[in-house]
Amino acid sequence: MDEADADPDSDSRAGAEADGDAAESHGGEGNGPPVDLDPERREERTAAFYDALESVGRPVATAGEVARRTELSHDAADDLLAALPEANRLDVSNDPVVWYPEDLETLTDRERVVVFPDRREVVVDQPDQYTLAQLSGFARLVTTSGEGSYIYEVRDSDVWAAPHEDLGELIAAMRSVLGRWERLEEWVRAQYERTRKFRLRTDGDDEDEGEGYTVLEAASEDLMGNVARRKLDDGLVRGLISDTEAWVVEGEEAAVKRQLYDAGYPVRDDRRLDEGDDLSLDLELELRDYQRDWVDRFTERGAGVLVGPPGSGKTVAAMGVMAAIEGETLVLVPSRELAGQWHDELLSKTSLSPGEVGEYHGGTKEMAPVTIATYQTAGMDRHRELFDARRWGLIVYDEVQHVPAPIARRSAELQSKSRLG
Questions:
Q1: Which residues pair with 88 in a beta bridge?
Q2: Judging by beta carbons within 10 Å of its beta carbon (0-12, 13-18, 19+), is residue 186 exposed, middle or buried?
Q3: How far apart are CA 333 and CA 42, in angstroms?
Q4: 326 vs 272: CA distance, rounded Å
Q5: Cα–Cα distances in Å, from 84 out to 15, 125, 158, 335?
Q6: Exposed, middle or buried: residue 384 (CB in 10 Å: 0-12, 13-18, 19+)?
Q7: Is the whole-model pTM more than 0.85?
């Protein structure tokens, strides 16, 4: 029997000495939490082991390094490692005991998230579906290597359009995949607050029917005087109602929203718009429970964004929303290919007839109760009057995160009762 085998505690003591005051920083030997070898905790402890390897930048780690990562005492971390089947022990002469993973491929295939807060960029490698779904809720995909690496950018427009109930929910979603980055979160908070500075509302005797007049409301007198009055072209606002309210000229609502958006202030649209023309359709398949929940939440709010990983059935859920809204629908997509896919899916999964579904883009131009158009075409001035003339009950924005901001902004000016992203 070797000396090391005869005295199992000698390696732990050597590791503690080599790691300096690691044990002291956690309250001294034996003061950390006891080792929990419950199977339900094993996955968590295994993940902490791999996290420790990544944090030290090499495929081996001492018990002291694992202790710092897991907030266990040195001795408890040593016992934990000995109990993990994923961790192998290596005795190195005159050095502390080090531990390495049983399967090195697991280390290379693990998800990595690197944040560049000043550039507001996120690089992810081998992300799981949860991470991709969360990122799509507050960032735009810039590029992908095709081999599991992605680069995302957090833009002001991404924060403005984030599908979260409030700022706290948005920050929580960010932290769930990025961790805490104070400078980035401060910037996000500032951008989020801009979405609360201006809003459009309907006033007048017939406001419930959408027949009143439109009012632009600012959060402060300074915003109305130094932003709205200075940034808006003449002829868009008729006059002041109060220091924070102004009448909007009928038909100029979209221009008001566009110009304030360009000035860095997205406008909340709380007007009571027309319902749009009726369109009865049935969804010819059963929604999954979470898809039904998406539909129910959307119909309660009248607007929203479906956030889910690829393959989770967002397109089918959008069809469920169409069936619930029962109004003529405009579906906006980035490309002709996606327009064709939507066309085929609608005919195969709903009760719509071929005459009720049309495509409008560079290849074909058919207006119908359900029209599928590309963002590029819908945003062109020469086609705008045609799209504006229709009373859409719903506009669906598909994969808007992949569309250049100027094009997405022009299409966002189209009016509808409800909007789904």
A1: 100
A2: exposed
A3: 45
A4: 17
A5: 18, 26, 42, 50
A6: middle
A7: no
Q: pLDDT tens digits for 280-299?
A: 889 988 888 888 888 888 88
Task: Measure the CA dihedral 299/302/307/311, to 10°.
Answer: 50
Beta bridge partners of 242: 245
Q: What are φ and ψ of residue 161, in 5° steps? A: -100, 5
User: Which residue type sits at 44?
Assistant: E
Backbone angles phi, psi at 410, to 5 degrees: -65, -40
First to last CA, the chain: 67
Supply angle C-alpha 352, 306, 417, rounded to 5: 60
CB 89 within 8 A of CB 80: no
Angle of helix 289-301 versus helix 314-325 axis, rounded to 10: 50
pLDDT less than 70: residues of the chain = 1-61, 69-70, 83-109, 205-211, 273-276, 302-305, 307-310, 381, 384-385, 389, 400-419, 421
Q: Write down all domains in the chain, each with its CATH number in brackets.
A: 3-107 (1.10.10), 111-194 (no CATH), 198-269 (no CATH), 289-420 (3.40.50.300)
Query: Sign (positive/negative) of CA torsion 279, 282, 283, 284?
Result: negative
User: Do the strands 198-203 and 213-218 form a parallel or antiparallel pair, or are they unpaired?
Assistant: antiparallel
Q: 206 by DSSP, 3-state: which?
A: coil
Q: Which residues contact 243 (CB under 8 A, 6 or more apart)?
A: 221, 224, 225
Q: Which of 405, 367, 402, 364 is nearest to 386 (CA)?
A: 367
Classify the phi-psi angles of 313: left when phi > 0, otherwise alpha if psi is within -120 to 50, otherwise beta.
left
Q: Shortest CA distance to 330 belongs to which of 345, 318, 341?
A: 318
State the Cα angle at 41 between 40 and 42, rounded to 5°: 95
Distance CA 26, CA 71 (A): 7
How do residues 347-393 score in pLDDT, each as one tens digit? 999 999 999 999 988 878 888 999 998 888 877 767 766 777 677 88
Inter-residue contact 366 to 336 (CB < 8 Å) = no
